[in-house]
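Model the whole thing, not chain by chain.
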Amino acid sequence: MSEAVSALDGATFEGFAKVEETGLRGMITVRGDLASKEMSAAIKAATGAAVPAQRKVTSGDKGAVAWMSPDELLVVVDYASVNETVATMTDGLKGSHALVANVSDARAVFRVSGDSSRDVLAKLAPVDFARDAFGAGDIRRSRIAQVPAAVWGNEDGSFEVICFRSVAQYVFDVLKVSAQPGGDVGFH
Amino acid sequence: MSTRLTTGGRLLNKSKQVTFSFNGKQFTGFEGDTLASALLANDQMLMGRSFKYHRPRGVVASGAEEPNALVNLGTGGKFEPNQRATTTELYDGLTCTSQNHWPSLEFDVGVINNYAARALPAGFYYKTFMAPAAAWKHVFEPIVRHSAGLGKAPKDRDADRYEHFYAFFDVVVVGGGVAGLMAAKAAGQSGAKVLLMEQTAHWGGRAPVDGGKVDGVKVDDFIDATVAELEAMDNVTLRNRMMGAGVYDHGYILGYERLTDHAPLLDGPRHRLWRIRAKQIVTATGAIERPLSFAGNDIPGVMLASAMRDYVENFGVSAGDRTVVVTNNDDAYRTALALKAAGLDVPVILDARASGGGVLADEAKAAGIRVEVGKGIAKVKGGKRVTGVAICAQAGEGAVLEEIACDAVAMSGGWSPVVHLWSHCGGKLIWDEAQAHFRPDPDRAPTSHDGKPFVSTAGTASGPLKLDDVLVDGLKAGEAAAEAAGFTVTAADEPKGEVHDEAPLQACWLMPQGAGPKLRMKAWLDYQNDVKVSDVKLAAQEGYESVEHTKRYTTLGMATDQGKLSNINGLAVLSDALNQPIPATGTTTFRPPYTPISMGAIAGEARDEVFQPLRRTPIHAWHEANGAFFEPVGHWRRPYCFPRGQESHADAVSREIRQTRDSVGLLDASTLGKIIVKGPDAGKFLDMMYTNMMSTLKPGKCRYGLMCNENGFLIDDGVVARIDEDTFLCHTTTGGAERIHGWMEDWLQCEWWDWQVYTANVTEQYAQIAVVGPNARKVIEKLGGEMDVSKEGLAFMEWKDGKIGDFDARAYRISFSGELSYEIAVPASQGRAFWDALLEAGKEFNIMPYGTEALHVMRAEKGFIMIGDETDGTVIPQDLNMQWAISKKKEDFLGKRAQMRDHMASEDRWKLAGFETEDGSVIPDGAYIVAHGTNANGQRNVQGRVTSTYYSPTLDRGIAMGLIHGGMKRLGDVVEFNKVDGSTVKAKVVDPVFYDKDGEKQNV
């Protein structure tokens, strides 16, 4: 395989919060019956995690799973092992009506960290980022300014933003504008 | 004269002097001043000229309701017009100019309009400038525009930054006066998440100026203690300099936070627009004092009584040495007492009420002030400044009883609750006869999705005007809001506010009540838009009975202040003229924002490089580095061509085409939509989506398909590849990817929800590169890898997965150019490397990229249609002679039935054909094929139009496709296309396939 390069090749910015492109991530769109035994078995086999509840992320030893819609999940694994995971998932769901697609290259991922990271995100996404409303293991499919994006909370208090690869520069730029010194809201 | 007093000024930091300029003159003020108070302190009472008559105007209010004191604030990138001096906090270095004057504020030529006022009544535009029509544009409009108007438009880019902020609360309280503080505290104590916002920099509203005690302590101390309590609550957020701008459906409310207006040198955004979702909204927005309508009530020096008191108490500024107070209620007596206490002279209080005032009136008399009951002002004397008043009986017609010299007039016509936010989302009002004002009707509140109220009011915004009522109302409103938001409230002790007995107000809409036309013509209702009592009477006389019509005819309440001072007085005058009670007239509609908010705040972060998202392919950076000339395609930028050196775009396009046709070229086709459709019913589903039969396609094969909407019109096209028994990959146009994905999901979710089909949009997963031209195969083979791309190994209209060089590739043998062509998809992360590898491998063939224009020309040479060129939303496949792509075997597909309608099946439809000009020239874009005669509108008849027209470097002549009546039956006819210069160009109707009619080149 030719060497794969992420959209912004690890760009970073430090304002009143830190914004970094995390590099390539294995991502798999899975559509199917989320309540089925086959689905939980396939998800378990691929990631070690359980099927997440609405607007939640679960994680296991091999990866994480995010709820995307009533019939869609996003499986997140190492970029290097994504083809293997796609195969595992496809195999596990062979008997049922499901769709498994590798979308790793269609995405860019940013980490927003620091005490004020909630304020950075709340300038761009119509999401309640209050500590009691959004924490580790929560995900929202929403937008960042003018483009679609998903945001989830990490255990260490940082956040990850997933967007389409073509708008990686735009999302990085709006996160930068949002995290610019002087713009701290002091709210969250 | 107006001046700074030695005492007073609770908001000032007298140890910090600041310098500012007004119309180029240098002035000084103190930190804590507003621009208005600082101008008054410097005896600058004249602050602007009025909109229509250019009358001299001074400040009349002390807050957001100010109509007159508007300035052009700042310079260059910090310039902003129509800024209210009363809400502009003074800072060192502030620069401003007054508005609507020429050549100067003191001497304004436009004031001629004032003397011609008799000729410029309400509606004069409509009556005067009827004819001739051309005169409006060239004579009247330029004159009116020069003469009327307020601030100047900014000329430079805004130097500041702005942002939005999303926040969620249980209870939002708007207004940080005593009622708002009480409401926030009550809601906060229940555990609700509360936001309290206050538009000024200070808490407590008017209470500190009006004085009094709460539970035995001075109201100032009570405010400080309450703010401290609120600050200590984790669940309460306090924000000052933040205005509740608008209330919208479902608890959506906008907060307009002004972060650096008071200190422009501070780092950070200037304004922040809070986009808030609240379960409950409490508007504690206070009340606004009404002016009285008497002749000369707009002369500088005539001010609201409350404002005059504010200037004395808050800023230590007096509007004049001798102030006549005129009122119809007790509150104005407070001003008289405050002025007296500050050592100023109050020669008389004119109380329009025959029975006079209550306890406060007795205090005034005790302080030695002359009080005249049943009296009013016949007219104010003076021009640029008040010099005196003529007194008359309120009951009469204005016969002057006495003239009194003075340099200021304090007026009070009673108080109107600020009901704007309550009304934005449908809250209704009731007329309170005793207070002579509209107040919110708690039984008809704005309701949310569940039919329950989500807005309530607190304090004077509810109607009560006395301190104890206000405090209790605030407390109750806070408790009720918290309960409505789902919290449990333990009733708190009601605070006790100190009150005086007040005599009832007596409505007074015109002073004197029998004022004749001459006085009415000088009695202003709307200062900012120059609307007088006489204008509203005229509107009524001319049949404008609806308050909304009168508003528009007279422009009452239509200026930047949205009639905060004028609305109630105006509709009272209208009611009187129409002989009907005020509630029968009603109010005009209150719309957000409460006061104007900056355009920057609305735009938020969306400016400069993040004005709009720009979509970039994995190869975009190469295009930029190699001089691509881009064209927008949706949010993408695609290279139109790659000019070299001084080469023109046309030359570049020709070069790219010749190279591709002769050897090999590369196209970045990554933007094409790619949608996976999978499931046991996928074939059945695609048979409905496309006009062709897709279910019979074999895995490993590709088929070109057309998509129509349910009305039969073409909406998209592209190549479908069958991946396996259950899986298809559908290519869409670049602009169609998201739209077609949504279209598919719409049918699957809403109509055929029981079909087993899933879709996924994987457009961006791949970089897709077309390798095109006779040497395409050689270039690919040079890269090595395991994939057999020979004629037999990968035949035309087949696809295959495998390694090309090091790359994980999927190659499609499809051609949009008519040449030997491979479209190769690799994971986006490998896209740039793949592009580089192809360029390297193709060096010996002089490989070069081509842009969208070369792509267009080459497809037109082949007679291939383009969605958006040959189609425009009114074209069906049959119009494009594409019957071959419409399955006759299928029972149904989207558009089938529509295409059977008479008009769709008619032989009279314009149909596709090719065109060659006789002189070889290129037909202009958008040209029509003219026909004989003219239509009913005198326009030339037409029989068709061009849809694609290009210079073909391959054929060295102009080629075109177009729709023509009769279509291909017209082959050989010579028709005329119109040209921009009015002439026409002759062209022959030909076969639209201009190049390689048998398709031999793509099939090698």
